[in-house]
Design goal:
Layout: E1 2-5, E2 8-12, H1 15-24, H2 26-29, H3 36-40, E3 55-56, H4 61-71, E4 75-80, E5 83-89, H5 90-100
Length: 105
């Protein structure tokens, strides 16, 4: 999920980030009552990845895939003139391959 401030992409939070946070014990160190809802109410700023790797809209899929593999990331923000226009994910590549092979319509 992109994190945007004043229209500018400042970071990302992924499902993996949330799972790592919940599994690390760090989340529960802040809990006073022992109630999971207290953990879920924590500010998201602790999870934001700010060292973003992104690509431009004009880049071909092969180059984008190489960037994702080289950086060991599962999603890639797609920018156009400094603005976020989309996010390319591993799932997008799987779908494209399946469509290309005629597995999906």
């Amino acid at each position: 999920m992109p994190v945007v401030h004043d229209g500018v992409l400042i970071g990302l939070v992924t499902a993996s980030d949330i799972m790592k946070y919940m599994g690390s014990g760090e989340a529960f160190e802040k809990v006073v009552t022992g109630d999971i809802s207290e953990v879920m109410a924590q500010p998201i700023k602790a999870l934001i990845k700010r060292d973003l790797v992104s690509t431009e809209r004009k880049v071909d899929l092969g180059t984008a895939a190489r960037k994702m593999v080289d950086n060991r990331i599962g999603c890639l923000p797609v920018m156009d003139k400094g603005s976020l226009v989309g996010i390319l994910t591993e799932r997008d590549f799987v779908r494209a391959l399946a469509e290309n092979k005629g597995i999906l319509p």
